[in-house]
Amino acid sequence: MTQIVVTLDNNADSNLLRRMIENMKGVLKTSVKTESITNKETEDKRTAWIQALSQLTESVNSSMIDLNDERTKYIMSK
């Protein structure tokens, strides 16, 4: 089993994101944990996240996405 930890911005809609993740193929369960961090830590994490996201988008192979899956169709329609 693999776990992915996601840090959300204070303005992020955690309920919406949780529901989206729960509807993804292969997800067994989700949980929410809240922590208090400083602005400097937040900015550093945000910068690291943006860099990681940029690298991820460059590495996505769209042929691996099952566009016939109902959950994928739902997410792509939003």
Number of helices: 3
Subunit arrangement of the protein = single chain
Proportion of residues in extended strands: under 5%
Terminal residue distance: 29 Å
E-strand count: 0
Largest sheet: none
Q: Helix fraction?
A: 40-55%
Global geometry: globular
Mean pLDDT rating: 85
Low-confidence stretches: none
Question: Mind explaining what this structure looks like?
Answer:
- This protein is an all-alpha fold.
- Helices cover 47% and strands 0% of the residues.
- It has three helices and no strands.
- The radius of gyration is 15 Å and the shape is globular.
- The mean pLDDT is 85.
Q: Layout of helices and strands, plus pairs?
A:
Layout: H1 14-22, H2 39-59, H3 70-76
